[in-house]
Write a structure and sequence with these properties.
Layout (H helix, E strand, L loop, with lengths): L3 E4 L5 E2 L15 E4 L30 E2 L4 H7 L3 E2 L3 E6 L5 H14 L4 E5 L4 H11 L6 E5 L3 H9 L6 E5 L16 H18 L2 E7 L9 H4 L5 E6 L6 E9 L7 E7 L2 E4 L18 E8 L2 E13 L7 E4 L3 H15 L6 E7 L11 H13 L7 E3 L2 E2 L5 E2 L4 H10 L4 E5 L12 E4 L14
Helix pairs in contact: 4-5, 7-8
The structure holds thymidine-5'-diphosphate and magnesium ion (MG).
Amino acid sequence: MKKGYVCSFCGARFVKWQGQCSRCGRWGTLEEIKDLSKKDDLNSHQVEIAPISLKEISKDNIKFLSSGSSIFDHFLGRGMVAGSVILLAGEPGVGKSTFLMQLLSGFIKSGLNGLYVSGEESLYQLKLRADRLGICDDKFKLLCTQNLSPIISIIREKNSPDFIVIDSIQTIKSPEASGIMGGVSQIKEVTSRLYEEAKKKDIVVLIVSHITKDGQIAGPKLLEHMVDVVLYMEGDKLSSYRVLKITKNRFGPSNNILVLEMETGGLKIVKDPSTFFLTSRDSTSSGSSLVMAMEGKRPLVIEIQALVTKGFGQNPRRTALGIDLNRLYLLIAILEKRLALRFYEMDVYVKISAGIKISDPAMDLGICSALISSYFDIPVPDRSVFWGEVDLNGFIRPSFGEDKRLLQANNLNFSKIICPRSKYVDEYPKEKIHSLSNIKELTSLQFCKK
Ligand code: TYD
Ligand code: MG
């Protein structure tokens, strides 16, 4: 029989016992695993299940439950699927509990039963939040526990709720698993038990998970493969907007976003977020450009700000907020090489307005324009919008959703649309469109002196 030890916090395995886990650095978390070599006896299983042909599977068995908000249902596809497990991850304080109370309330209003399980807050605290949100439905049931057993008993009851919120997975402990609350073995055990029960009873279980700043150990990444839908809530706690993103969806679109605004009475869905991030912009200052970015299926206009200043250190500084820093290095190198701009002696700071994080590669052209504009200290043309992915050789490539971006830019009445060459550009007024195939062509616009 082989023996081993596992860290109950990060799951690292060791052959010998040691006081400190050498992966996560925590003390006293190693526990013995009794039998590593135990194998499942294949002969002991009889064939009880047989393969089924694709044609025999009916799609009518899937039951979609409405959340009471058509926008949220559309965001997920067609609502929440009965028998699914959804994960909502986000930093502490971003608004997860607020959002879920509102979601559960909408769900109850559409005639279904809901239960809110909290392992973090007392009934009194939950009541205070509900009052603030104007929720006083007597069908809204709450349970404060840190033990999985009562939750499983409620699910197994005849009249079990159709939708259960678990806030949060880090505060629920299963008596059947070892390890500390919130550690890897507990989180895995609690999630897999909830997953099994949700499938058996055809109910929706929504699990909240906190993102920890120290490397996300025992966080949502561990759970992503165990659940059907993964949602992330992002946003700067100091500003009022929040963005809900889908990163995995087994039943619908997996790249949608929902923009929410935190008000004194809770979170409100922003119905048309296309220009939501554009408040109070000074179009006469240099280093600012607008980008038509796509997040999911939606074109969003985002402001990019760049500041290029003379550097005095040995190594020039590069700082990026809201975009990938490696992408910024790459774009600076392209501008140095293709447009012969002397960025090597300049400090560069780039920021996306309102702190939103965007990973659309078509932001490249907008970032380059903001950089050039700040470099020469000349504002980009008023009412202009940019998009296009920039290759290492300076070529500008069309991105996905070209048609949608063009349509939106035209609808929003931008007078200069600077975009890649594509088959769609001919459908729009020639005086508005500046389609480019190489970054060097930016020099035809007056903010680029070369
Ligand atoms: P909360 O939902 O508790 O965050 P999480 O569950 O992700 O930790 O909400 C956190 C913040 O939201 C808190 O700082 C107060 C603010 N808030 C409002 O601005 N308006 C409201 O109506 C509510 C309920 C909260
Ligand atoms: Mg909370």
